[in-house]
Design brief:
The structure is a single chain. The protein is of the alpha/beta class and about 350 residues long. It contains ten helices and 15 strands. The strands form three sheets. It has a seven-stranded mixed β-sheet, sandwiched between helices. A six-stranded parallel β-sheet has the order 2-1-5-6-7-8, with helices on both faces. It has a two-stranded antiparallel sheet with strand order 3-4. α4 packs across α5. The longest helix has 17 residues. The protein is globular and about 60 Å long. The chain starts with 6 loop residues before the first strand and ends with a helix. About 40% of the residues are buried. Bound molecules: ribose-5-phosphate. The site of ribose-5-phosphate has 14 residues, from β12 and α6. Ribose-5-phosphate binds next to β12 and α6.
Length: about 350
């Protein structure tokens, strides 16, 4: 144990698989593991319960903010924080691999909220919550919504390793492309992680249609994709509309194989007859995401023909171990690459 005190790693619902794998990597360091329990009332209210004593302990709470719904998950997170604090936990570190509402990070029209800021405010209402560990926030500036410490881990670390193993050591046949201007920095960071390159391509995207769910991709600027394999790199795939349009456009420009790559695979049902999964499969997509949004082994087997999910447990275990040490530094974990 790193600081002589007990440290519990707690798994909220939907997170038991990922969290127990993180725990297996930390067991030898003395970390303890427990899965939360829930009482579900007929009225649809819920009561989370911590099944172990956490008195005066540093606790790491792993929570999905996507399942069963983002709104439901947020209430459960707040109630669990309250339960931990009333159980006299010394401090709480939230491990939220996917954070919901981050795309609503500014007033993009009149009379709308900045939802990402509201979520940040309510997450921080409990004074025992001292740190958040997350993965690829929609924009870097959102870290400024938090006055507590926040570690925004790069999904690129896991995703770039995958392509390095698949195509390395010579990655010159691979072009990295951002599906829109907003994602340029993210895609460039990925390219740098991959092999130190700066040059990437950028698609021009214009949205249209109901609930902004229909997407039209218009153009491309960057290195030629003719006969090349392309990594189309985004922070998230939601309904899949953006990457399907971008992939079709890249194929029409002569790209050989296109991989749609993102940290977060939401696969929310679009307003259509097909599910997101059916739509992605039908479009012949090859998708690579992390397991920041957890899925069962059965789901992964069923969708294995178009979907690759890369596990985050090694990266999260390193982040948990580092942050549990007095003066530990998460950025030191990523300093060595390229
Ligand atoms: C947009 O700003 C995001 O980075 C993603 O490109 C977008 O949210 C993906 O949504 P969808 O898969 O529904 O097109």
């Amino acid at each position: 144990m790193t600081d002589q005190k007990k440290i519990h790693i707690l798994a909220a619902e939907y997170m038991t698989d990922l969290t127990s794998k993180v725990h297996q990597r930390l067991e030898d360091n003395g970390f303890l593991y427990a899965a939360l329990e829930y009482v579900n009332f007929a009225s649809k209210e819920v009561k989370p319960r911590i099944p172990v004593t956490v008195r005066m302990e540093h606790t790491y709470l792993f929570q999905s903010l996507y399942h069963p719904t983002p709104n439901d998950a947020m209430i459960k997170l707040l109630l669990t924080n309250d339960a931990l604090s009333r159980s006299s936990a010394e401090k709480i570190t939230l491990v939220l691999p996917y954070m919901s509402y981050l795309r609503q990070d500014r007033k993009d029209e009149s009379r709308v909220p900045i939802s990402a800021r509201v979520m940040a405010d309510i997450i921080q209402t409990n004074p025992k919550v001292e740190k958040v560990i997350t993965l690829d926030m929609h924009s870097d500036q959102e870290q400024g919504f938090y006055r507590i410490s926040l570690d925004n881990l790069p999904g690129a670390w896991v995703l770039a390793d995958y392509f390095e193993k698949k195509y390395g050591p010579d990655l010159s046949d691979l072009v990295v492309v951002s599906p829109d201007y907003g994602g340029t920095k993210r895609a460039r960071d990925f390219a740098r992680y991959l092999d130190g390159r700066d040059e990437i391509g950028v698609m021009e995207k214009r949205r249209s249609g109901d609930r902004a769910q229909k997407v039209e991709t218009l153009g491309y600027q960057g290195p030629s994709v003719v006969g090349k394999n392309v990594v189309l790199y985004d922070d998230m795939i939601d309904t899949g509309g953006s990457i399907i349009s971008a992939t079709k456009a890249l194929q029409s420009f002569g790209a050989k194989k296109v991989y749609a790559v993102a940290s977060h695979g939401l696969f929310s049902p679009p307003n259509a007859d097909l599910t997101a999964e059916e739509r992605l499969r039908k479009a012949g997509m090859q998708v690579v995401v992390t397991n920041s949004i957890p899925r069962s082994e059965e789901y992964q087997r069923e969708h294995g023909d178009w979907l690759t999910m890369l596990p985050l447990d090694e990266m999260l275990a390193k982040a948990v171990l580092e942050t549990s040490k007095p003066g530990g530094s998460v950025s030191s974990l990523f300093a060595g690459r390229k």
